[in-house]
Amino acid sequence: MIVRKFRDLKEFTAGDHSILREYFNPLKEKLELNYSLAHAKVVVGKTSTKHRLKSSEVYFILKGKGIMFIDKEQKEIEEGDVIYIPPNSVQWIKNTGEEELEILCMVEPAWRQSDEQILK
User: Fold this and answer.
1) Domain segments of the chain: what residues?
2) CATH code of the domain made up of 20-118
3) Which residue among 24, 43, 58, 81 is the one 20 to 30 A from 66 at the CA level?
């Protein structure tokens, strides 16, 4: 059994400028998973940088509200929403709330930096 404590996970800034803590990534340790799982946050009034992944992604909104942009679509999102992001989609998210926007992110196949393209 592997149990990860949120407080013990190292925080770092991702390529899209969100703040991440990675729970599981089978490319970084021996795990029988096909996906990676991370916690992301976007501070009040900020937007993640436009980017695309070769992998599919699922966001579960843990806290806050904002606007999710995928290609030419945009939708308001809030706590409890789940968002599917198809592979190779241009995506970014904006925090429109009054608290940090917190997201549980699952990437399949597992996230690797070489599969991410940051866009201007």
Assistant:
1) 20-118
2) 2.60.120.10
3) 24
Distance between CA atoms of residues 5 and 50, nearest Å: 30
Please give, one letter per residue, the 3-state secondary structure of the chain: CCCCCHHHCCEEECCCCCEEEEEECCCCCCCCCCCEEEEEEECCCCECCCEEECCEEEEEEEECEEEEEECCEEEEEECCCEEEECCCCCEEEEECCCCCEEEEEEEECCCCHHHEEECC
| pLDDT tens sequence across 109-118 | 999 988 999 9
User: pLDDT tens for residues 58-70?
Assistant: 999 999 999 999 9
